[in-house]
Design brief:
With 455 residues, the chain is mostly helical. The chain contains 19 helices and two strands. Helix 4 packs antiparallel against helix 11, helix 7 runs antiparallel to helix 8 and helix 17 packs antiparallel against helix 18. This is MFS transporter.
Length: 455
């Protein structure tokens, strides 16, 4: 279900842009992830207090309703509202990870986390081929029909099968703090989106940015100091902070590349623009085969983490992403076979980064705070994804050219886009090196619980 919210819409970005007469493809693609960043702190804290299963069912229902709104949307504003509701699916991912920590032994939980966070890519293996045929027959709406149905089925299965959590934190949810934090994050990220269209110094974008920064400042100086803050930012250890920094940059770089692939597929190399990988089966090859990489990256990262801890698999993911980005920059922007290989490597990066990020957080957090800490990982994934996608969109928009009377992306813009993603991976390697050094010689693999201690 999460894949149908975050990945599947990227398959139909050109159709969505045409349907709503907009070139803001980054906003169409990332609005759900943006909303997820604002949902996550509130839902993570709520799950620790009121129970993970209950909150998970609610998020699935909300995500399903969002799919229905997108399906019936007559205008881009209504569509974005639906995507905001679908953003609850982001919470579904980290809540699932937190539930795994409740019902599995620690080392086994690392492997299961890899299976759950990346195993959904099984759907991604066949979905591009199916969606390519289905969207031609039924239109882009088919994507959101599938998403709504999956959300309903998932909510029913969770309610019937998943046990109630026994690890809960007494207290209350700081709703004001959650809304202020979420609103601040949204304000900053919306500015990044609107700035490229209305001007970085435009009145409306600047007002939104100032409002977002003001909300974040109020939250940090006032609301984060309350007895039970929605996120205890001052309680974040150095190791966890470094891990979150790696996740925000690494996943952001990967998500931006995924967005670029959907645009490259829409252009034929025969057009002579210096980029473009359109060809027979290109959609299936670029998004189907690499789904295997997501599964391998996540599951292998989880298995390795049981022996050496999650930091080293996280480092391997960053290294793979760096290599793939610069191979893509050198020879893959107009070469389908090389692009498929690079996409496969980047997909392994994605699986490794997300799984290792969650595993690292679980190692460094007590059982009663798994929901809150997992939500922090998801916030980093969302912020990185949204920020890098909008930065990439701005790079392309700033380097457009006119060919035969039609405005298109230039080769300079595409290659600059790829280079920025590669440099972001390199930057992620800096805190990664400190993290590996910090955990060297320390027990970053969780010990098995004593008999009778409870799963």
């Amino acid at each position: 279900m999460v894949d149908t919210v975050l990945a599947s819409p990227t398959f139909v970005l050109p159709e969505l842009s045409d349907a709503f007469d907009t070139n803001q493809f980054a906003w169409i693609d990332s609005s759900a992830m943006l909303a997820g960043a604002t949902w996550a702190p509130l839902l993570g804290k709520s799950a620790d207090i009121h129970g993970k299963r209950k909150v998970l069912v609610i998020t699935l229902i909300v995500a399903g309703l969002g799919g229905v709104v997108c399906l019936l949307a007559p205008h881009i504003s209504v569509f974005v509202l639906g995507r905001a509701l679908q953003g609850a699916a982001v919470a579904a991912l980290f809540l699932t990870v937190a539930i795994i920590r409740d019902i599995c032994a620690p080392k086994f939980a690392m492997v299961v986390t890899g299976i759950v966070t990346s195993g959904s890519a099984v759907f991604g293996i066949v979905s591009p081929f199916i969606l390519e045929i289905a969207t031609e027959a039924f239109g882009w709406q088919f994507v959101f029909v599938v998403s709504a149905v999956f959300a309903g089925v998932a909510a029913l299965c969770v309610r019937l099968v998943i046990p109630n959590s026994r690890n809960r934190t007494p207290g209350k949810v700081d709703v004001a703090g959650a809304l202020t934090l979420g609103g601040g994050l949204a304000g900053v990220l919306v500015y990044i989106s609107l700035g490229q269209e209305f001007g970085w110094l435009g009145i409306a974008p600047l007002a939104i940015l100032i409002g977002g920064l003001a909300a974040l400042t109020v939250w940090y100086l006032v609301l984060s100091r309350v007895p039970e803050p929605v996120i205890n930012i001052r309680g974040i250890s150095l190791a966890l902070g470094l891990g979150l920094l790696v996740v925000v940059m690494g996943t952001g770089a990967y998500r931006s590349m995924l967005q670029l692939f959907s645009l490259l597929i829409d252009v034929s190399p025969d057009e002579g623009l210096g980029y473009g990988i359109n060809g027979p089966g290109a959609l299936g090859l670029m998004f189907g085969i690499p789904s295997i990489g997501i599964m391998l990256g996540g599951i292998v990262a989880g298995a390795i983490a049981t022996r050496v801890g999650p930091a080293r698999p996280l480092a391997v993911g960053v290294a793979l992403g760096t290599i793939a980005s610069f191979v893509m920059f050198s020879a893959g922007a107009d070469n389908l076979p090389i692009a498929v290989i690079c996409s496969f490597m980047l997909s392994m990066t994605a699986g490794s980064l997300v799984t290792s990020g969650f595993n690292l957080a679980s190692v460094l957090a007590p059982p009663e705070r798994q929901g809150t800490v997992s939500s922090m990982v998801m916030v980093m994934v969302a912020v990185g994804s949204v920020t890098m996608s909008f930065i990439g969109s701005a790079i392309l928009a700033g380097n457009e050219i006119v060919v035969d009377g039609e405005t298109v992306n230039s080769s300079t813009g595409v290659h600059t886009y790829i280079a920025v993603a590669g440099c972001t991976f390199i930057l992620a390697a800096i805190p990664m090196a400190f993290l590996v050094r910090k955990l060297r010689g320390h027990a970053d693999v969780p010990a098995e619980p004593h008999p009778g201690a409870g799963a």
